[in-house]
Give the backbone structure.
Amino acid sequence: MTETLVQDVIEEAQNERRARRLAVREFRPRRALAGFMAALLVTVVGGVAAIELLAAVLGSGVHPVPGVAEAADALRGRAWNDPHVLIAAAGVAVLGLAFLLAALPGRLRGMPLAGSDPRLAGVLGRAALRRTLADAALGVHGIERARVRGRGPFRRRLLVRAATHYRNPANLAELVRRAVDERLDRIEPMHRPDVDVRLGWRKD
Amino acid sequence: MRIAIAATGTALLLCGGAALAAGLGAFDALLALSGRPLLDPALPRFTEDAGWFLPVAAGVAEIVALAGQLWLVFQGRALVHRWWPDLDPQTRAAARAAADDLARDARGLPGVQDARVRLTGTVTRPRLRMRVAFAGDALVSEVYGELGAGPVERYRKAIGMPDLPVVIRFRPAAKRG
């Protein structure tokens, strides 16, 4: 009996871990544009180099790819310390750095939902999460405007900015926090974010 | 994909950095390179002396070009399979019928206003993608659990893929009026 219970607990933990792994794999940014640009660059540079080098191997005196003859003349006429060459080299290095940054994992495209089925991954998009939490804050009596800002590289918490027309807000900030917490309970994210509430009120 | 992008980025960064360093005279103590032309007249002499160099360089360039083309083809294939799954006609027909049932069952759950279903991928890497629009105060966690336990499981059985990974995106439904 105890053994079965322990096995169940272990299995549940394993399933949760696998579900988390599936969610991370599915909702990690795909970097499709960076991938396409890099593949195109590799194909074009490799292709042009291959054609030119094969022509040179076969002893052909001409450059088969249009524009390469002019480029070769320009390369013969410029030294390594030529300002144009330095700018081009810096450009290539910056492009490389951009590709390297694009290869970093990045933030997930939304907030994965908690679950223990390793074949199932659910997500609420970032904009959808902001919208639904702002909607919850607006449900508090006396709140006129509400905006939610998501977590960023320098902010680990969700920030709810709400405004009321009341002159004395009393415990409205607490009520807004409770409403947002309640909405998060209904969503049940995989990693529950901390929430900051900033309330503005009439000062006249 | 990420590793290939990182490899391309590393190669470009190393080439650009090395060219920049050469231009700024970092290697002058060894080769006095900064004042010399990019296509050095010594290069044709070297290629004439070392007969192996050009064929090897051409071979390497061919391999790089081929790898780039394959990478493009894989990306295009993945993009196409997101819309048109690479499955046999019977599975596709069964999936169409099961998708209608799944969408109908999902719409029947409390708080769900709309549900769309699409089977994507290939026989070896299939995916079921669902989009679910919910009313603002719906119990999303409960809908998610119910979907996984009932309708999605029936869908898997109907198309004969018991391990089919399912990806569900939730969004709040647009308010009417």
Remarks:
- The first strand of chain B starts at residue 112 and ends at 121.
- Chain B has seven helices and three strands.
- Strands of chain B lie at 112-121, 126-134, 166-172.
- Chain B has two domains: 2-83, 89-172.
